Amino acid sequence: MANGSDRMSVEQLAERVGMTVRTIRFYAGRGLIPPPVREGRNGYYGLDHLARLELVRELQAHGFTLSAIEGYLERLPADATPQDVALQRTMLAPWLPDLPETVSRADLESRTGRTLSDDDLEVLVALRVVEPTPDEDVFRVAPAHLSVGVALVDLGLPLDAAVAAERVFETHARQIAEELTEVFRDQVWPHYRESGERPEAMTAMVEQFKPLTVQALVTAYESAVDETKRAIVRRRT
Predict the structure, then answer these.
(1) Nearest Cα to 49, choosing from 38, 35, 59?
(2) Which of 4, 68, 102, 234 has a Cα at 20 to 30 A from 31?
(3) Packing angle, helices 47-61 and 66-74, rounded to 10
């Protein structure tokens, strides 16, 4: 509900969320946001409207169609607070430090500082560091992972090994992501929701949670590799 300092006109809401008034009214007509609170001939919007519109914008950035966005919002609990909606948006935000970019082969070679053969590119594609596009010699690249991918190419990693390694990473990464999402949804989210924190505080918490989770995964992997090596040595003695 819009009240107090959180109350906004449609023009103020449009400025806050970076949309046009016409777009907001279109979304309201489609049921993506609740109707405004009416006072006479004026309608006012609040934090719930703002949070839902920001979630719509995030879903659009992920390539969701309007009908898919409508379905996503319909599945939100009827009593979802602005904090709940803001957390949904934050969890959808990309975890990569840099968003993928579209670059030409020449740009890619400029960034790596070396000529990339077709075999090199096949390895980078297998490792999912770069992704081919419908245009010839144009790729989508994850900048944060490019240096690691090139280092593996320089080591002479065979293509079949790259494919096998990526299959292992993909399988276990998906399982870890699903299980950690359950932990967050069932234990972390309820705790912060009951605390009554404002959406900004919950968003900041999630942003801190991301790198800590990645670092914890790296640490666990390093420990597991060391233990695996020790187990192999024990079996051979």
Answers:
(1) 35
(2) 4
(3) 130
Query: What is the structure's pLDDT at 4?
Result: 46
User: What three-state secondary structure class fits 230?
Assistant: helix
Going by C-alpha positions, the residue among 71, 69, 64 that lies closest to residue 53 is 69
Q: What was the pLDDT predicted at 1?
A: 46
| Residue 46 contacts residue 3 (beta carbons within 8 Å) | yes
Element spanning 111, H or E: helix 105-112
Measured from the Cβ of residue 209, the count of other Cβ atoms closer than 10 Å reads: 15
| Helical segments of 184-198, H only | 189-195
According to DSSP, the residues that pair with 107 across neighbouring strands are none
What are the residues facing 104 on neighbouring strands? 138
Cβ-contact 139, 102 below 8 angstroms: yes
Distance, in Å, from the CA atom of 152 to the CA atom of 159, rounded to the nearest integer, reads 11
∠ CA(119), CA(122), CA(125), 5° rounding? 155
pTM of the model: 0.53
Average pLDDT over residues 177-196: 79
- Contact between 146 and 112 under an 8 Å Cβ cutoff? The reply is yes
